[in-house]
Amino acid sequence: MQRRIIPIISRLNPTNFHPHRTLSFSPETPLPYLGDTDDPLYADVPRPRRDKSERKPYPTPMKILIQRAKQEREARKAQPCRMLEHPPDNGLLVPELVPLAHRVYRARESLLSGLAKLVQAIPVLRCRFCNEVHVGRVGHEIRTCTGPASGFRCATHVWRRGSVSDVVFFPKCFHLYDRVGKPRVVHDERHRVPRIPAIVELCVQAGVDLEEYPTKRRTKPVYSIEGRIVDFEQMVENDQMSGNNIDPSSGSDFAAKLDEAPGGCEVERSVSNLDEVTDLRELSVLTMNSWLEMISGAKKIMEKYSVLTCGYCPEVQVGPKGHKVRMCKATKHQVRDGQHAWQEATIDDLVGPNYVWHVRDLDGPPLDNNLKRYYGKAPAAVELCIQAGAPVPDQYRSMMRLDVVPPDRDEFDLVA
Description:
It is built from 11 helices and 15 strands. Helices cover 28% and strands 12% of the residues. It is globular and about 75 Å long. The chain is of the alpha+beta class. Strand 4 (124-127) and strand 5 form a beta hairpin. The protein has helices at residues 62-78, 98-121, 164-167, 198-206, 238-243, 253-260, 264-273, 280-302, 347-350, 380-387, 412-415, and strands at residues 4-7, 22-25, 81-83, 124-127, 133-135, 159-161, 172-174, 195-197, 223-225, 228-230, 307-310, 316-318, 342-344, 355-357, 377-379.
């Protein structure tokens, strides 16, 4: 709710200053940018859910989901037995996404290797009692701690040294050998089915072959009989099935597409040269490119391959259906008998970005709690690369509030 409208009397860029323009904001949110607040370029920084009992917002509106369910039900009634035509629902791979899956997989490896070196040069701090992360030599003074006994500390954070796992988080999911024939893992199979990072499972289902995590590759589409998937393909030996797998180093069409794709070798070259990089700025640029390549590629793959998340907890499952393991401990789990409330996932559910406050000067004073509405945020991996010398990507400029000049501590009463 907007409380009031005040003129901006803080220090602003003269080229962007308009004397008759006013700015409205809520005391609970950061200061918006100059311009139309409906513009997506001026979206507020991401904030956590206010109440843990709230369900995650649906990426797709509920009306559209209901319409899709009605159309699928009518299609089953009109044609009970039909062959599924479109991949990956029919068990086949999407050809144009196979080289992209390999690039995303290599970008993740390059990202982890680069972050492991950057955290040794740029300090990363983590709160002892909550999941708050800060990139800088001195922890910020913003009182947002929600850990145990935070009320006695006035919600101030207690900082300690962090690691790569605090910068970026890859939630794990169950690995599916056959994503179409057996898309669900039941509760009794929870100890027999391996769990791997969800983004790795997404790449495996999209075409990446890993020896330690085998998967079934079909050559013919499956049939749908009254909503049930039936595979009429004849059973073959395991060695014959492995011959149908796509190997990026073989002379197949997918390997040719992988080599000819624009930027296909850029991430691979950065992985091989990462150990030879000694300049901190060059290392940060390569790591930033790996982050952008991984995020953009995963978004494109998620448009075809479904990824589900629990509406109340961070659990993720890559596949057409969520698993049936009763392991949810979030709110209302007693009503669901411990099962998850599955819904469509976003890229932030697949890759935990750990948004942190942006620090303009590592040698400057710590961020003040009274001025938090003037500060921006960025994913911890992006903030770490920027502090090491990488340029700011265009998609994160508005989120980081780069065109807002925060007032000094003694000027707070004049602008708030």
